[in-house]
Amino acid sequence: MAAAAEPVNRRFEIGEFLAQEREKDLLRFSTAGSVDDGKSTLIGRLLYDTQSVYEDQVRSIEGKGTTAPGQIDFALLTDGLRAEREQGITIDVAYRYFSTARRKFIIADTPGHEQYTRNMATGASTADAAIVLIDASKGVLIQSRRHAYIASLLRVRHVLVAVNKMDLTGYDEPAFRAIESEFRAVLEQIASDTGTPVEAHFVPVSALKGDNVVRATAAMPWYKGPSLLELLEALPSAQDSRSAPFRFPVQRVLRPDHTFRGFAGQIASGTVRRGDEIAIFPSGRKAKIERIVTFDGDLDAAIAPLSVTLVLDRELDISRGDLIAGGGAAPVVARSVKASLVWMDQRPLDVNRRYLLKHTSHSVPALVSSIDHRVDLGALTHEPAPALRMNDIGAVSLHLLRPIAVDLYRDNRGTGALILIDPETNATVAAGMVTAAQGLASANEEDEAAAWGRVTAGEREARWGHRGGVLELSGPTELIDAVERSLFAVGAATCLIDSGQQAALQHMGLLDVLTDMQTQSGLLTLVAHAGEEGVLTASAGGLEITLDADNKMHAVTAVHQLLQRAGIFISPEGADL
Amino acid sequence: MPVAENESVQASPRTPTVTSPRLNHLRLLEAESIHILREVASEFERPVMLYSIGKDSSVMLRLAQKAFYPAPIPFPLLHIDTGFKFAEMLAFRDEMARQVGVELLVWRNEPAIAAGTNPIVLDTRRCCGLLKTQALLDALRHYNFDAAFGGARRDEEKSRAKERIYSFRDTAGQWDPKNQRPELWNLYNARIHPGESIRVFPLSNWTEMDVWQYIHEEKIPVVDFYFAKERPMYVRPMSAGQEALLPTEQDFVARPGEKPQMVKCRLRSLGCSPCTGAIRSDADTIPAIIAELIGFRSSERANRVIDHDQEGSMEIKKREGYF
Question: 0.90 exceeded by the pTM?
Answer without folding.
Answer: no
